[in-house]
Amino acid sequence: MTVELQHPMKADATPDEVARGRFVSGMRSLILNDLAGDMRSAYERRAAPAFKKKHGREPESSREAHQALRGDPAFNIYSAMRVQAQKMVWASVADSVERESDRLASEAEKAAGALGSLELDPALEVPKNVHAIDVHLMPGSYTRGADSLEAGAVYDRGLAVFSMGLMGANLDDIGLSMSQYIKQRHPDFAPQRILDTGCTIGHNTLPWKQAYPDAEVIAIDAAPGPLAYGSARAKMQGQEVAFRQMCADDLAFEDESFDIVWSSMFLHELSKKQRAKAFDEAYRVLKPGGLVIHMELPPNEQMGAFDGFYLDWDSYYNNEPYYKGYRDEVPRELCTRAGFADDQFFDFVVPSIGIYGDQAVADAAKGDRAEGVCQETTGRLAEGVMWYGFGAWKK
Amino acid sequence: MVRFRSVEKVSDEKLRPEDAPPGLYDDQGNPRFFADPGMDRFVAVVMNLAQEVWVQEERLLALEEAKSGDAIDRDAKAKEFIDRVFAPIREA
Ligand SMILES: C[S@@+](CC[C@H](N)C(=O)[O-])C[C@H]1O[C@@H](n2cnc3c(N)ncnc32)[C@H](O)[C@@H]1O
Predict the structure, then answer these.
(1) Which end of chain B, C or N, has fewer beta carbons within 10 A?
(2) B9: pLDDT confidence band, cut at 50, 70 and 90?
(3) Minimum mean pLDDT among A64-73, A90-99, A363-372: which range?
(4) For B62, nearest residue in chain A (alpha carbons)
(5) Smallest CA separation from ligand 1 atom 5, residue
């Protein structure tokens, strides 16, 4: 499905560019649904039995599933096509972003007077996980175009192609699903101050402002360009958010000053050391009674060998060097090591609000800890996606 | 102005998961999957080519639409096109 962004910085694309984007979304859909299914059946039919013949047992970990699959024709074709489709995502938006740089700047200028703010820190040293590799094969990574709107526009337009419609027209399905889950599960919780860490362009920040309109919402990221873009984007959509350039592992906020610390698809882009520090910082800045909550990929400990490797694939082949290391960690321990009490930890699965609807999210919020972490659709961007989250309350 | 936390030899540093066997990548650091590395390139060429054909197809659809006055569901057409072109790989 083709996604059209919901603000004036959306691409004024030529018909050829629209066709290119549609093709890439369609290819990704073939790869992530059909070819992924073919790979699973090849694994069961061929790869796992061959592994068993050699080792006397089934593959037991993501790593062994990888070993079993390497060289299998279904794995090869899935992988080679996924790599190329990923490159095509970014290529399909590069021309329009370059051509429209002046228009983007003037659109942002027009919106500058709206509520909300942007504070960049030119003295901040951008960490290498943000600038030194082309994260998920995105050319120039998050610092492309320095503090111009370029990186943000590439990300926004690229994500529209990448997501195949599964993240909603405003690319906010994760934030919408998760904020509604929390709001409905904890109707008496009334956060006054909310922090999003690693917000990129703030697409999953805005739903928190919508869920809690009276709260002050602050969104930080280490990369300046996406923040500048995200600030303009939020203003265009009438959402008051303060965007600040800062590292999540070194927050410039006072102790006990937030009610929620949130992130989405963020922890897996940090080194193990940065991640531990980010949890320490979250604990420090949360008020007693506050909530840390992360949307992330489900951890390996809760998945079988094949499904675990299916997600870890990105670590080896999609320039996500920390992805597997993250997925090998245990969410509960990440929280308790930072000071959260063991009995305050929870994890859950929320159905995508865009796919399953408001009622399904409401039902999940009322239910027991959602089942289905180990379901195939959890954490996988494919038909029927459900989002995995975890968090802890600070006593 | 953007300051970067320094990395030695940023350009040729390839961060990889610790347990990635070196044989997963070619000497340029690109992932390789097929026994013949030419195949990895070839798959990419086929996908690019199919994309170019699809771009031409959308131009024709626009002309047809203008002529008949009926709207065409391009997403559905693209899916049919992709399914048809890539049918052989479903047998892998
Ligand atoms: C995949 S994006 C997150 C996207 C977004 N939160 C979402 O919901 O889709 C990861 C972001 O983390 C940022 N980042 C990485 N390391 C960081 C750090 N130490 N402190 C703050 N931001 C960081 C990157 O610049 C990037 O924008």
Answers:
(1) N
(2) very low
(3) A363-372
(4) A15
(5) A199
The reported pTM is 0.95
pLDDT value at A179 more than 70:
yes
**Ligand 1 pocket test, candidate residues A125, A129, A221, most atoms within 8 A of CB:** A221
**Alpha carbon A35 to chain centroid distance?**
23
pLDDT over 80 (residue A91): yes
Give the Cα separation of A212 and A191 in Å (integer).
7
Domain boundaries in chain A?
Answer: 15-114+126-162, 164-304+319-393
B19 reaches A (C-beta below 8 A): yes
A182: closest CA of chain B, how far (Å): 34
H-helix or E-strand containing B70? none
| CATH annotation of A164-304+319-393 | 3.40.50.150
Q: Taking CB atoms and an 8 Å limit, are A80 and B33 in contact across chains?
A: yes
Report the nearest atom of ligand 1 relative to the CA of A274.
19
Q: Closest chain B residue to A143 measured between Cα atoms?
A: B2
CB A24 within 8 A of CB A271: no
Q: Where are the domains of chain B?
A: 34-91
pLDDT for the residue A228 = 98
Angle at A128 between CA A125 and CA A130, to 5 degrees: 90
The answer to whether B19 contacts A317, with C-beta atoms less than 8 Å apart, is no
User: What is the predicted ipTM?
Assistant: 0.93
Q: What is the mean pLDDT of chain A?
A: 96
Q: Cα separation of A74 and A24, whole Å?
A: 20
Q: Do A80 and B58 touch (CB under 8 A)?
A: no
Q: In which band, very low, low, confident or very high, does the pLDDT at A370 lie, cut at 50, 70 and 90?
A: low
Q: What mean pLDDT comes out for the span A309-330?
A: 96
